[in-house]
Amino acid sequence: xxxxxxxxxxxxxxxxxxxxxxxxxxxxxxxxxxxxxxxxxxxxxxxxxxxxxxxxxxxxxxxxxxxxxxxxxxxxxxxxxxxxxxxxxxxxxxxxxxxxxxxxxxxxxxxxxxxxxxxxxxxxxxxxxxxxxxxxxxxxxxxxxxxxxxxxxxxxxxxxxxxxxxxxxxxxxxxxxxxxxxxxxxxxxxxxxxxxxxxxxxxxxxxxxxxxxxxxxxx
Length: 219
Known about the structure:
The longest helix has 26 residues, at 2-27. The termini are far apart. The protein contains one helix and ten strands, in the order αββββββββββ. Strands 7-6-5-4-3-2-1-10 form an eight-stranded antiparallel beta sheet, with no helix packed on it. The chain has one helix at 2-27; strands at residues 31-39, 45-54, 60-72, 89-103, 106-116, 125-131, 140-146, 171-172, 183-184, 212-218. With 219 residues, the chain is mainly beta. A hairpin with a 5-residue loop joins strand 1 and strand 2. The chain has a domain at 30-149 and 193-218.
C-alpha cells in the first residue's frame, strides 16, 4: 500500500511540473525590458527601468520608472510668483504600461503615469521607444509625455446631411513595396485616443543623448 501511495505522489508531482512548464511556455509572448542610464555633463544622471509583456490574449501589462537627478523646476511662467533660485529636486515617475508594439529589434510601449514627484504629471500618457542592438553600449532609448486629449466637436460638412466622413479610416500603402504595413489614417474625432499618438515603429528617431544599459526585445 505504501509503494502505491508513493508512486501516486511521484506521478502527481511530475504531472504538476509538466503542467506548470507548459503553462509558462504558453503564457509567454512578445516582451521588452531593460535598464538605461544617461549621465549628464554635471555627473547627474537620468535612469529608465521598464518591462512590458503581451500575453496569449493580447493583453499588455508592465511598468516604467524614470528618475532624473537634475530634477524639475516647479515654476509657472504665467503665474505671479518669481522663479525660485533653489536647486530643483530629483524628479521621479512611475507609469503602468498597457501597449506594446514590436518590429524586429525595436519596441514601442505606452501607458499612463500613476505616481510622480510632480503631481502635474500624474494622469499624463507616456510613450517609450527602445532598440535592442545586443550590446548595452549600442542600445537606444527615447521617451515622451503626452497630455490626454479632451473631447469636443466632431468635424462635419454642414452642407452634407448626416456627413460621417470623420468616422472613416484607411491605410496608405506603397503599391511597389511588397508586404508594406502601411500608415493608418489619423483619428480626427476628439477624445477617442487612449494614449500618445503612434507611428510605424521603424520611423521613430532617438535622442542625441547617449547612455548605456541593457535592453532586451523579444518578438
